[in-house]
Amino acid sequence: MNLWKKVCPLEQIPRLGAMRIETPKGAIALFRTRDDQLFAVTDRCPHKGGPLSQGIVAGHEVTCPLHGWRIDLTTGEAVSPDKGCVTRYPTKVEEEWVWIAL
Amino acid sequence: MKKPRLVVVGNGMAGCRTLEELLKLAPDRYDITVFGAEPHPNYNRILLSSVLAGETLFDETILNDPNWYETHGIRLHLGKRVVEIDRIAQRVVAEDGTSAEYDRLLLATGSSPAILPVPGNDLPGVICWRDIADTEAMIEASRNYRHAVVIGGGLLGLEAANGLALRGMTVTVVHIGAWLLERQLDRYAGELLQKSLEAKGLRFMLQTETRALHPGPDGRVHSVEFADGSRVEADLVVMAVGIRPNIELAQRAGLYCRRGIVVNDTLQTYDPKIYAVGECVEHRGVTYGLVAPLFEQAKVCANHLAEFGIARYTGSVTSTKLKVTGIDLFSAGNFMGSPQSDFITFTDPSAGVYKKLVIEGDHLVGAVLYGDTVDGAWYFQLIKDRQKITEIRHQLMFGPHHLGNTGHSGENRAAAMPDDAEVCGCNGVTKGAIVAAIKAHGLFTLEDVRKHTKASSSCGSCTGLVEQILANVLGSVYQPSNTREKPICDCTELTHAEVRQAIREQKLLSIPQVMETLGWRTPDGCATCRPALNYYLISTWPHEAQDDPQSRFINERAHANIQKDGTFSVVPRMWGGLTNPTELRAIADVAEKFRVPTIKLTGGQRIDLLGVKKSDLPKIWAELGKAGLVSGHAYGKSLRTVKTCVGAEHCRFGTQKSMGLGIRLEKALFGMWSPHKVKLAVSGCPRNCAESGIKDVGIIGVDSGFEIYIGGNGGIKTEVAQFLCKVNSEEEVIEYVGAFLQLYREEGFYLERTCHYLARVGLDYVKAQIVDNPEKRQALYERLLYSLQGVEDPWQKAVATQDREYAIMEMTE
After folding, report:
1. Domain ranges of chain A
2. Where is the binding site, in residues of B?
3. pLDDT tens per residue, range B723-758
4. What number does CATH give the domain A4-101?
5. ipTM of the predicted structure?
6. Does the domain spanning B639-788 belong to CATH 3.30.413.10?
7. Contact B809 A19 (CB under 8 A)
């Protein structure tokens, strides 16, 4: 059962930036892309557990700060040749506030 | 609007490579049709020798399967030979009547093997080796017959002979030249090669001319007769005496041809609507029979087909590598030399090693390596780049030593490594995995291998090994990567140098502006190009360009060093490596208060607080700031530390006050961003306790003044710093060092350490700017001072502005 939770005002996350959220389900990385789409995934790289929220965002991808794995935020899958995936969480923006479904 | 139509005649490596390059640049520009005379999709012709030798299956050589054509909306006509080009109606017609109209036509008809004009050359059992059908015929023959004669001791002939011998045939190689591979090797290396191949069981007849081929009672070839009347038994004859460009189609259409279809530097034929690439073309009087030049042509041709119009093909320097397992040979450039050439040679007969370098004036122009080819890629690059080698001439024979010793047990010969040996110690990639990826995915470059296997993509110390493996698998096709011409990343065609120049000359001030002006392919760039662009902007236009935190690596964005568990480390600056009770007390207090789990001394004489939560960083900095401690920039591509010895202040041997000078230098350079990290050291006497010899800038005090050394490195590959000059006063040290670092800041490529920068531009160049030209030196130093004006401590700034970077959301049930 997904529960929508209010996170923060949209303007608190810079474009091509991220926010780390500590939740009972573990840390979640919330990304804002250039086109103002929001993506939420587990903040753990499938490679060696690096905090994806600290990576560089480009397009709909984030590059892990530890060893440079790239994760496609639309699918949660690592970009080839790497293999692995992260859990995605639904997000939405209402009246300039960011929501996430846990 | 209807798309213009592009028709490609020839479904081989050159034609398809051009399409691949074109699709990268302009995926939707053309409606594309491809005609291939063979019934197969595009396959990797150069792996045919490996198929013959039984090391690769044909299916593994497929480069683009039918799906690839379909995905890209390409109409593919297989098994249809084009027989007519109607240039007036702009239409091509195939044997079976299939036709296609074009707006642009690309001819990539390749070449055919030359056939010796001797009686019996059409007998059954006589094969010219070119395609997969010939390869299969040879494999078939090896099952049923015993005696093979290969005519031609060139690359193809020797690979054929090796493959047939591995399949159990008795093989004789007949060669008209005085030694093997006379177009690729000098006599000495050719003779060494012959010995190695004889040891594998091959037989050779040199300076022997074939006169006729005779049939046996069954009508199949049975013997080969030579000019002296002698005969050798043969039930399979493979002719490998050269290739002939396929120009008949072009000739019939009235296109100007000489030996090949004549093209200009844009790969255009005499008909502006028709382009040609590959073995069928003649460019500046030269035809090529190796794949590497074809790839260079493909890239240029695609650029023009995409109507970018900025690329020129000016010819290729080729290199050679024989694909015979267990034999290491390499040659490049003008390896025979001329009466004006100098030769440096090295021979070690019992180890089977021979090396010859050909030098003309200040340049390396050719090289032959036998038995030890580890440095081949480096020599080839020196030849291609026409880099001046005067300064390194005395050590040229001993290679670049760029192959580090870490992570691969000091192994430096890929050919001798077993498949399960680890090549890349960072990512745990074995030789077998790399070879498999090269074959399975049709990889040709170091970058391809990095992308597919991750090998050599981290610290890079195994790059030389990976290049060797590529060379061993691909043979002469392999082209060492050319860093000078390499684009920054997949987002652009432009090199670091071109981007730097554009930013300077067009006064570009932000990343979006750079990407827009220079035609970036991706809207946001990527994690490779954005940090580089950000650095180029702020270093070229200080106080004007926008610094973009989102384009900085996390360490620079958060001003601390990320650790494997996502915590950070904090390293306060201790000027010149000196501290005092107040600072130590402050550090001890925050360590206790914030429960810092690990405290460690760094190699640069600083204290490292490890395991700090990101949200605690500003709180720790606020307290450290009260004791006067500022950021050590231990996280950035910037000034790291100035390490000092005790010096004349206390040491009984000291000649200069190294601590004092170290502090002055560190304060002068505080907050300086650079292409990569910069480390300094100051020693007070030649005993050099501060290890000045392995720093980006090292100062050694002597009785009469200071010696300045630059470009040292203690990292993956230890690099000893080079002597720049000697000066008399501390003021001069600061000016000279500042000027050198500014030169590096202005000209270095992002992530290029000073040692690599120095290797690229040469010490003489740096001396000319810094030592011999006082005006230039002062101007450089002033530009450094200008960019350092008003530098703030990033820690105190983050504390004062309550930077949101460190905020963490917490969410409960």
Report:
1. 4-101
2. 645, 651, 685, 689
3. 999 999 999 999 999 999 999 999 999 999 999 999
4. 2.102.10.10
5. 0.93
6. yes
7. yes
